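Please check this chain.
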Amino acid sequence: MVQFTFSQNTSITISGDSKTSSEFFRELEKKSGFSFFYLDNWIENIEVTDNFVEASITEILNIVLSDTSLNFYVLEEENRVFLLQNTVVYDELPPSFYRQNDSITHEREVIARGNFPPPVFYNDHISQTAQNLPVVRIGRADEKNLKSTYKLSGRAVNAQTGAPIPDLAIRVQSSGRVAVTNEQGEYELILPAGYNLIATSAMGIRDSEQEVIMYNDGTLNLQLQESLEQLQEVVVEADAVSNVEDAISGSEEISSEESKDIPLVLGERNILEVAKALPGISSAGEGATGLNVRGGKTDQNLVLLDDAVIYNPTHFFGIFQALNPFTTEKVNIYKGAPPVEFGGRLSSVLNIETKNGDTEKISGEGSIGPVTGNLALEIPLKKKVSSLMIGGRGAYADWILQSLDEESLNNSEASFFDGIVKYHHKFNENSEIRGTAYYSKDNFSITSDSLYNYSNRLGSVRWAHKLSEKTTGVLTASNSNYNFGIDYEDDGNSNFELDYTINESELRYRLNTRLNDMHIFGYGLSAKYYAVEPGNVEPKGANSNVEPVSVDQEQALEGALFIGDEFKVSERLLFNVGARYAFYAAMGEATQNTYQEGAPRSETTVQDTIAYGSGEFIKTYGGPEARVSARYLFAPDFSIKASFNNSYQFIHTLSNNTTVSPIDTWKLSDLNIKPQKGYQVTLGFFKNFKENMYELSLEGYYKRMEDVLDFKTGADLLLNENVETEVLQGQGKAYGVEFLLKKNRGSLNGWVSYTYSRSKYRFDGDTSEERINNGEFFPSNFDKPHDLSVIANYKFTRRYSVSMNFAYQTGRPITYPVGTFRFNNADYVTFSDRNKFRIPDYYRLDLGINIEGNHKKNKLAHSFITIQVYNVLGRNNPYSVFFVTDDGEVKALQSSIFGVPIPSITYNFKF
């Protein structure tokens, strides 16, 4: 018998032209005499175009496999060639195998020199609660350039919509190292060579675990599923990374879906009402417009809808939100040091984001309730590229007012609607654009002679793009408009129409640069233009004897430069620091009065009147703002956070109502009204238990404010050309402790929130007319020391659950009459110091039953029914207390919004 022996150095001539990869390898096997071992799918995408002349089998395979993840091993003694995925064959043990005392550091140094690559072993175990993703091998092992660590980068997208997933936490289980995706869903991680287990988590995205074997640098793009279980949760759930590990404290994220089980008035989902159940956030009373955050006024909140300011995000005096719950994605609330790109307000930022439309199929969601109907549609325009989302919402509440047993309300009117359109287009992996247009309108008339209306209109365009591997940019342009009007008509000759408008336009450009694992920079600039029509009155009808009144328009520019850095000192210590310079200029055409020094401002103390031409600067203000936050990890689930920030506010509301009204006017800073300034420090402890099932936080804050506005007694603010004579500017302080305990999972979930806080103001001047309460600090209208909220939901099955919402608050301050006196044969009332007394404490219990439709896959629509009772106890909570004189006797009367239980049933559907 004749036996032929081949060597791997045998010269081979072979051509790759006009051959498939399978044909090429079969011919190579035949000519070389070696047997090849591989799977067909490993080589099916290899294109061989080279021609080889007198080449060895090693030379041929090095070239053919150079652009693939395949290696090879030649077993010359047996004439065999093994193709290998990513790895290499280890045919001898490293020297360190025989050295029991070698350190890990020494072994990695040996590996880095490329002498002996490490073998890779991995486990079969994957968490049963997470999405199981297949094992992924990254890169191709190179024996000449082996390292102890390799770089993994990629992009995370929603598997259903293709939309990027920002703020996705990617954690390396072995080391605890975490990367967070940017706005385009991009991330970068440094991983040890060999086996790694990485876990992902984000709000609304199903948790996943992925086994990754690192042979070299490479890319891993993640397509993750939406969290279907999370849609059934009631609790506002923040993942452990943001709760414990982020540097920014005093921040909350609420998903619109998470409000669907919480019982609220008339069964309406209301993400802003849910916010009031969180610590540090409240309002002046039931049905009051606006939020008071950590002792600040309602005008000290910057409320953004897709980057555009919305001045009044509520309908019907704050009872309903002006946001369609089916088009709203989430709201991020910053109560402490906000991100450096935001400014212009002292208390908080509420950044509301709408959903991107589905790019795969037409889908929709809607509801029918006692007073409103909602509908949202998502329409793909080009598959996986562009989509349109349309939402509409209207009220039919007049029947409720007309059915009440109150004759004075029979002719009342209360209606509203809002609509939103959003377009989203993804050009490629590095660029996408979205545009949003929104409009809302309210009409109400509680008396027979006056019809009130107010409206919001806004639009924004946002272009997100990637400039380089490390830098991304976001360019936004927006315009916002708020208008209110009064249409007065009676039997006399005093009919009139009043109109007020504020309009602003903003352009902002922000860049993010991930310099390295230690520094992530954010920087940019913004510019804003204000135009305010303080009010116009026109006579209505030919017989009206009302004189036309028009107050001069106000104009101003506001701008800012900002830079921030998320600085990772170590795995335990993280800083988020930033600086912002704010600039403001009030502009003409306008006239401004100057007043005598040391005298109260009035018509009699005007010293001079200055006329400013169009575009001329009247007065400029500005200064630096700091944003400093720090986090220190005592353990992976326990941290302490601290922050400091200061800010300027150049725009103010003018109101002499106890609570905020839709017809309160906005006033720009000018020659006589200074901008408000605020300073806040916070310190908090954050702890999670039982694998993040429970979250516990305790945070304290102290805030100082300067040049805050309040009104003089008997002030006339509307249509006042010299409104500075009716207001005062003084100091404010607020402090408090916030406690929050949340249970995120299980049949019973929810949270308990408690806040102890004080909010006080002081107005002290040279004369008694400029002082309130003798220049001493007094409680603000919304000072409520004790605020307790309990939200709970119990699931009997996946379809049936019950929910509860309990709220308790200290009664807000009020000014009472304390005596009477007689002058010129007339009786007069003398009042106490401002806000010396309090109305009775407020408490309310709401209950609900939630019934999910069955979960059959092939259904035209999936349904969800909520049966709720608001104010189950029938508590007649006072909204305000006022006083009237009846037969010479002063009587106190109490008004309430909902003094009886309010049942409701709402049908929700989704298709």
